[in-house]
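sry for the spam today, last one i promise. struct tokens for design, 758 residues
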């Protein structure tokens, strides 16, 4: 192999001539030489040519030379996030379009110069994302006889006719496009920016391969804000990292190595060999096959708390003797939910009640007496009573509920009480005397009483410093549910309590519980998205792991505790949890209790026969009104695209677009995704060329009367040449709402197009 490096001049590309010129077009916003996609593809190409020492090649990345016209800039989409305002610039869309055109022109000029000076050189082309668009458009100007292979990854212009319909041909594995190389999702029909039809001309038959990852919504797969399809389940990924994870994972998932294998086969003409691919098994579920819980907490901007040291948790709950309004059951409902959800979290709960009790009530075995408040009636005594201790796995929910009901029935509410003093003494008594164990995480949950009185807490109680010392000494994670707005300021004196752990009545109970239990992201997802199907039937056919006919009754799988030698052993690994099964035949009924990816392996004795990644994706549904789960969205934003530029996500009902080029037509699209990842609706709005004064007069007369009531369709922008302003024109412009420029100028003015989204 003779590999010749390129420099930044045309001569280095065209002389000396080589057998193959490899050209790669990078994606939006990627740097020239440091982007991982270029590096992965370049490395894979180098490896195959090491096996082909008889051939020479050069590797060129579009944009690295100015010898072929304007270098391809790969204008970025600037990591699209939620649009903070209601004004979007059409200028960025213009720059994106120019970037694609620059790439097309550079590749075309490069091709022409190389073929002119080196007529025997053949081309290998590849592009990622925006770069794939460049390649797809540019090959329409090239001679296919000069092209060995074209590999596109994450192309937003991908088109696959076999993905059309509710039950597409791709799901039946029939009528597949010849360029469909590795696209596991059978519902992929077209890329986010609309598919090119035809995507590949007949003359390029068997010379193009397309890759589209699972959950790469840019090229037409699902939209995955939860990262359910990501095998790594990286807890550091925020919502936007999850959304774009499928699109930025071609290197990690081995796509460039697969493409290099295909290219190697094309060069060596060994077309009978299939490239090695990691098997993926996709189960498509109907939206109604899920129970979807409240999902707001997954989008919380709260920082994640530090990881706890122990598996076991010791939780002390402190209830006041006078709770909230007797008709308000928030604390009762929250404590019941907390008990239920703590079942699988190794919790030992100690329940205390603090405040005032009738003197006639006998003291409990554990009782901390306090000096009676000066405003409390003499018929009361003040202190903290121990109620009960239990492991959540040992006590039923009904028994816990009964305890709470009894306590709620004993409300003692003396008026005009010094609440700060009561809190300090009660906290100190409990923290100092509770039976904290050494090998457990220590948690304290205090619920405050609600007294509608004003009191003075300017002078800090002497116990406050001692409480902070005790919290620090015993390494307490302290949580406070404050029902009394008047206490908000006072609670800040507990400086060892994380401010994120002080809740008021406006907080979502699910958020409070999640904070106390410190559920990780996997636990949250499993609780919030629960499959209603409890098992899947799998089979191994000697080559692949497949879904079995559900009508066939399988023998029950047993756990590997059996000492008998199994004929087949199966292992599953989901979120780090491994399960093993043994079967007497290559069939398995797999229990399903989570939608997270599951690595499945089958063994014959000790040898791994096959493995696959089981992934769950939603079906494509065209009637969202018939499905509550599909029509609802837990991602409350719509994607806005100006021409081919992804502007970002918005929840604004009214958007203003400025800097819209009046000399060209434009398309503005608004895309709404369902809670499960498929497109629910899409609005497409066209802005025609606006370079004629006659068009202005005609359109204004039709739009100014109803502009406030109009939706997004057919609203117009205007631009006029430098001519003398007529009175009629000025009158028409002055009738416009105050959302744009109202005077003419020989210089291009900011143009506004108002889009009303409902």
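last one done:
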């Amino acid at each position: 192999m003779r590999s010749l490096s390129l420099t930044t001049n045309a001569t280095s590309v065209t002389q000396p001539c080589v057998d193959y010129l490899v050209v790669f077009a990078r994606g939006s916003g990627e740097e020239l030489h440091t982007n991982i996609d270029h590096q992965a593809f370049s490395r894979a190409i180098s490896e195959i040519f090491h096996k082909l020492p008889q051939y020479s090649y050069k590797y060129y990345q579009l944009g690295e030379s100015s010898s072929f016209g304007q270098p391809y800039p790969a204008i970025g989409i600037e990591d699209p996030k939620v649009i903070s305002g209601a004004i979007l610039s059409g200028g960025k869309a213009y720059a994106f379009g120019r970037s694609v055109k620059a790439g097309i022109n550079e590749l075309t000029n490069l091709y022409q110069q190389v073929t002119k000076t080196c007529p025997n050189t053949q081309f290998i082309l590849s592009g990622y994302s925006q770069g794939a668009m460049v390649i797809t458009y540019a090959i329409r100007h090239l001679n296919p006889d000069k092209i060995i292979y074209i590999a596109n990854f994450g192309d937003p212009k991908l088109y696959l006719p076999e993905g059309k319909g509710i039950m597409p041909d791709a799901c039946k594995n029939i009528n597949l496009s010849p360029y469909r190389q590795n696209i596991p999702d059978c519902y992929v029909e077209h890329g986010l920016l609309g598919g090119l039809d035809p995507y590949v001309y007949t003359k390029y038959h068997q010379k193009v391969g397309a890759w589209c990852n699972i959950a790469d919504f840019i090229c037409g797969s699902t939209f995955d804000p939860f990262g359910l399809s990501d095998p790594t389940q990286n807890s550091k990924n925020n919502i936007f990292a999850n959304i774009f994870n499928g699109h930025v994972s071609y290197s990690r998932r081995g796509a460039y190595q697969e493409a290099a294998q295909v290219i190697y086969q094309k060069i060596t003409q060994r077309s009978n060999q299939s490239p090695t691919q990691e098997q993926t098994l996709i189960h498509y579920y109907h939206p109604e096959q899920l129970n979807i819980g409240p999902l707001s907490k997954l989008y919380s901007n709260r920082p994640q708390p530090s990881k706890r040291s122990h598996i076991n948790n010791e939780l002390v709950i402190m209830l006041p003797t006078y709770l909230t309004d007797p008709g308000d059951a928030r604390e009762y409902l929250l404590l019941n939910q907390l008990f239920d959800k703590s079942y699988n979290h190794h919790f030992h709960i100690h329940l205390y009640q603090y405040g005032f009790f009738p003197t006639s009530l006998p003291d409990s075995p554990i009782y901390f007496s306090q000096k009676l408040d000066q405003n409390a009636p003499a018929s009361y005594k003040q202190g903290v009573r121990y109620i009960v201790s239990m492991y959540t796995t040992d006590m039923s929910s009904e028994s816990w509920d009964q305890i709470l009901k009894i306590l709620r029935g004993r409300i003692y509410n003396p008026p005009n009480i010094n609440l700060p003093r009561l809190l300090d003494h009660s906290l100190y008594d409990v923290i100092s005397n509770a039976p904290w164990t050494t090998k457990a995480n220590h948690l304290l949950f205090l619920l405050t009483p609600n007294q509608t009185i004003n009191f003075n807490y300017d002078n800090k109680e002497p116990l406050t410093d001692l409480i902070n010392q005790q919290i620090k000494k015993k390494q307490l994670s302290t949580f406070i549910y404050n029902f009394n707005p008047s206490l908000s300021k006072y609670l800040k004196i507990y400086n060892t309590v994380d401010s994120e752990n002080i809740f008021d009545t406006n907080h979502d109970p699910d958020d409070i519980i999640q904070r106390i239990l410190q559920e990780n992201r996997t636990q949250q997802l499993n609780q919030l998205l629960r499959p209603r199907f409890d098992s899947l039937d799998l089979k191994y056919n000697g080559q692949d792991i497949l879904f079995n006919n559900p009508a066939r009754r399988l023998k029950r799988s047993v756990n590997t505790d059996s000492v008998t030698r199994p004929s087949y052993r199966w292992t599953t690994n989901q979120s780090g949890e491994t399960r093993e099964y043994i079967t007497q035949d290559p069939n398995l009924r797999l229990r399903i209790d989570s939608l997270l990816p599951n690595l499945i392996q089958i063994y014959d004795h000790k040898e791994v026969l096959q493995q696959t990644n089981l992934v769950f994706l939603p079906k494509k549904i065209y009637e969202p009104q018939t499905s509550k789960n599909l029509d609802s969205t837990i991602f409350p934003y719509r994607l806005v695209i100006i021409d081919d530029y992804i502007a970002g996500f918005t929840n604004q009902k009214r958007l203003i677009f400025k800097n819209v080029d009046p000399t060209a037509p434009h398309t503005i699209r608004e895309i709404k995704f369902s809670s499960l990842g498929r497109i629910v609706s899409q609005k497409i709005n066209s802005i025609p060329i606006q370079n004629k004064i006659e068009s202005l007069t005609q359109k204004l007369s039709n739009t100014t009367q109803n502009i406030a009531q109009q939706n997004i369709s057919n609203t117009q922008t205007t631009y006029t040449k430098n001519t003398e302003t007529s009175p009629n024109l000025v009158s028409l412009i002055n009738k416009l709402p105050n959302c744009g420029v109202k005077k003419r100028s020989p210089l291009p003015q900011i143009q506004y197009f108002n889009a009303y989204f409902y």
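The longest helix spans residues 90-117. ok im logging off now
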